[in-house]
Structures are given as C-alpha cells and as structure tokens.
C-alpha cells in the first residue's frame, strides 16, 4: 500500500481544497450538526493565526489528493507563558484510509513539526462517540482531562 506524503501547508493555499473533507468530517462526527449548526469556519481567524505563525496545517496527500489533515494551534500557554503548546483543533483521516496506520503517520509528522517549532506540550482530543484511544496510546499521549458540554 502506498504511503501518504505529509507536509505543512498554508491555510490560504489549501483551504478551498480541504473544505470538502471538512464537510465530510462535520457530517461524520459533529455534535454541533446534531444541534442544528452548520459548518461555518471563521476563515479570517484561521488566516490571522497563520499570519501570526500560530497555526500548523499538516496535510497528508496520496497521489496529490488530501487524505488526512491535522490542524494545530501553536502558542505560549495561557497559564504557563514559558511553555509553548500545540493544541489540536481537528484531525481527520479519510474513511477508506483508516486502519492502515495513516493516523499514526499523521500524528508522527505533526509531532515532528511541533518539536521543530519548540512545542513542549502537544494536546489533542477525541469525541467520546468516536474514540481514538489506541492511536493516542500508540503515540504515548496521556489522558489528562475530559471536557463536558451543556447546551444552553
């Protein structure tokens, strides 16, 4: 099986191509969709974060097509200014590519980029309805928190 090629790409250069996969991801796992909220990313905010060098867009391609992505915000911790953090926004592997270690390769490429940037703490989450614990455990992540939501 062919392996994807991973590279950091700039938001404004990849967003239009990525948008159909974002919608696929939204359709698959979004809690907001269940509550009637359409996918409407704050494009200007992502662009501003890219311009401030606070956004990592790790893109996995196979035969030139996007098959995986990991979007990470990089910034000093709000609570620990000396600790540069990578906060996972969203990660996705195309459904037909799951189980082929694409997720592990995506995380490896992302970790390498974050290390290169000097990130000390890399955090990412999973939806409880779509668990990814084996992937996190394989990558040596430790569970540290559980988020709770109250819809008002």
Write a brief structural summary.
This is N-acetyltransferase domain-containing protein. The protein has helices spanning 11-29, 31-34, 43-51, 102-116, 133-138; strands at residues 5-8, 55-62, 65-76, 84-93, 121-123.
Oligomer: single chain
What do we call the CATH topology? Aminopeptidase
Total helix count?
5
- Which structural class do you get from the secondary structure elements? alpha+beta
Give the count of structural domains.
1
CATH architecture: 3-Layer(aba) Sandwich
Q: How is the biggest beta sheet arranged?
A: 5 strands, mixed
| Overall form | globular
In sequence order, what are the helices and strands, one letter per element?
Answer: EHHHEEEHEH
User: What are the segments in which pLDDT stays under 50 over at least 5 consecutive residues?
Assistant: none
Number of strands: 5
Which value, in Å, is the CA radius of gyration?
15 Å
CATH homology superfamily: Gcn5-related N-acetyltransferase (GNAT)
CATH class reads Alpha Beta
Proportion in β-strands = 15-25%
Please give the alpha-carbon distance between the first and last residues: 47 Å
What's the arrangement of strands in the largest beta sheet?
Answer: 1-2-3-4-5
Q: What is the residue-averaged pLDDT?
A: 92
Query: How much helicity do the residues have?
Result: 25-40%
Protein name: N-acetyltransferase domain-containing protein
InterPro entries: Acyl_CoA_acyltransferase
Task: Explain how this protein is built.
- This is N-acetyltransferase domain-containing protein.
- With 152 residues, the chain is α+β, with helices and mostly antiparallel strands.
- It has one domain: Aminopeptidase, CATH 3.40.630.30.
- It is 35% helix and 24% strand.
- It has helices at residues 11-29, 31-34, 43-51, 102-116, 133-138; strands at 5-8, 55-62, 65-76, 84-93, 121-123.
- A five-stranded mixed β-sheet has the order 1-2-3-4-5, with helices on both faces.
- The longest helix is centred in the N-terminal third of the chain and has 19 residues, at 11-29.
- The model has no long low-confidence stretch (mean pLDDT 92).
């Amino acid at each position: 099986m062919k392996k994807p090629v991973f590279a950091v790409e700039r938001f404004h250069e990849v967003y239009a191509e990525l948008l159909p996969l974002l919608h696929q991801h939204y359709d698959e796992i979004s809690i907001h969709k269940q509550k009637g909220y359409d996918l409407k990313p704050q494009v200007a905010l992502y662009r501003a974060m890219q311009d401030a060098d606070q956004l990592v867009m790790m893109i996995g391609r196979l035969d030139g097509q996007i098959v995986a992505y990991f979007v990470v915000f990089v910034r000093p911790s709000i609570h620990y200014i000396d600790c540069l953090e990578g906060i996972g926004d969203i990660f996705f592997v195309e459904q037909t590519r799951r189980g082929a270690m694409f997720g592990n390769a995506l995380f490896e490429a992302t970790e390498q980029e974050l290390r290169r940037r000097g990130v000390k703490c890399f955090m990412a989450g999973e939806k409880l309805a779509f668990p990814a614990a084996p992937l996190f455990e394989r990558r040596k992540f430790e569970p540290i928190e559980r988020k709770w939501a109250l819809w008002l």
